[in-house]
Amino acid sequence: MKTKLSMATAILFVQLAMGQEMDPNKMADYQNTIMIEQLDLSDSQKEQVKAINLKYSKKQAALLNKEGSMFSKMGDMKKIKKAKNEELEEVLSKAQMEIFENEIEPEMRKQMKRQRGS
User: pTM of the full predicted structure?
Assistant: First the structure.
């Protein structure tokens, strides 16, 4: 599973590093795949999570595709992440949210740091 997560994350960040515009649909699909596999979502949760991921992927992509440094976008990215997590807390169980925050998100951050470092 970590291999899938690592590979998909690497692809997204290579696009960003190469100056390619981020595709919010691809970002949401990637997040959906990881979350469905790792969180054992119910059918109802799957639909709600897909909608949340697409909503916030569109916001993230719009921000990332704008001119400016990553540093200048950091505050807005944190606000987007906070709002998304608040919505996810309404859909996911406490245990699922803990897995998301403690395993899925940190792995994505690690991959991003690796991509920026290379």
Answer: 0.76
